[in-house]
Amino acid sequence: MNKIALIIITLGLVFVLGFIFFGGSNTTSVQNVEIKDGVQYVSIDAKGGYFPRVSKAKAGVPTKLIMKTTGTFDCSAALVIQSLNYQKILPQDGETEIDIGIKKIGENLQGLCSMGMYNFVIEFL
Amino acid sequence: MNKYIFHVSGTHCASCKILIEDVLMDSTSSPQDEQSFIKNVRVDLKKETVQIETDSDQSIEELATVLTNKIKGNGYTLSVVRQDLTTGGEDIIWQALPIGLVFLVLFFILQKSGILNLGIGGQTTPAISFIIGLIASVSSCLAIVGGLVLSLSAKISQDNVSDTKTFILFHFGRLFSFALLGGVLGLVGNAIGINFTFTAILGILASIVMLFLGLNLVGVFTKNKITLHSGIFQKVSSVFRKIEHKTLTPLVIGFATFFLPCGFTQSMQVAALSSGSFVSGLSIMLAFALGTLPMLALLSFGSASFAHGRHAPLFFKSAGVVVLGLGLFAFLAGLAGLGIINPLFSI
Hints:
The complex is a heterodimer of chains A (125) and B (347). Chain A has 125 residues and is an alpha+beta fold. Helices cover 16% and strands 46% of the residues of chain A.
């Protein structure tokens, strides 16, 4: 078979893979942060990944993270937050409240699933 | 006295040289044997050649057939022309690369599409855990468990170990361990705490095995076999060789897959935990493992049938590309999961 054609196909496929991994991350901002009675709640959906991937929250306010699961069996149910030393398998359905405490400006909180292929970030501004 | 040089295939270890020389020379010791005409045998592992001296009048082709019959039982073949596996190498990799990449692209598109995030709710019955097993077997878990199965299967078939028996043992070990450990989880009822860090480290080990076997399948190592077999790689590969040949090992690897990082498995383990009895925990985990069986069985027995077919070299190299891709993915994700590196991607 024509070697050059195969090389071109290969490069094309590498490009597609690169796009799958690094491109097209939908950073559509969702209103998922609210402050009630002086406590800031950040809610994130966990199912086949974490949504939204990036959240912006206020620094200097006591903050709680709410993980919402709806029939979640995949990796996103196995939540790891390194900086809080938090590891838990979320219930299949329900909401899990995690106390984050008060964060400073510029601090980020990162959550991952146990296999590491899904992640989310909360940026404190 | 004539000198002939044959190409030999199947030489994957340093001891192959001694074995081939022994077997071919042995026949010279018994005078009534038909091969007693062979005076001298020299095996060159680096060039993959066997050189013999003989005063026979047989043609080189006839000699190749006669001598191959002698050493066929040990997995070696002599030929006058080099076989595909070596000559085709350069070109075949360019065919294997796009084939492997197509599978990787399809796999990751499937992950990204969200098709696999079916809404399954309510109580976890064995029927539901079977369906979850079906989904899990094509999900991102396939990257680790499936990648490992594919790489080991292809390697085992390549080395001509009795592959069917090995695969059956592996799958049996997997089903058995899921049932047993599921039952134990249901019985104990609270967290023996299958530690995330432990599973993550196990996942990284699995991905290293995949990367190693992937490189091996692609054929990166075959060019400088001699350097491979001196030094650290010799130890590693001899460990693998030992692993492949034992009956117990596929069972143990099947058993170990219970602890490999896979969100679905972990969710099922929690479901088994909260199920409250040995029997219910057992049935949940067994049903889940049965659900994953069709895909994994397809991977292992599929690779066996390809491995004995005409396109074997192409298959091994393509499988190697797929395994390398999945291994790299699992390795980077695993490091991120342990907090060693920042996550590079999110699919």
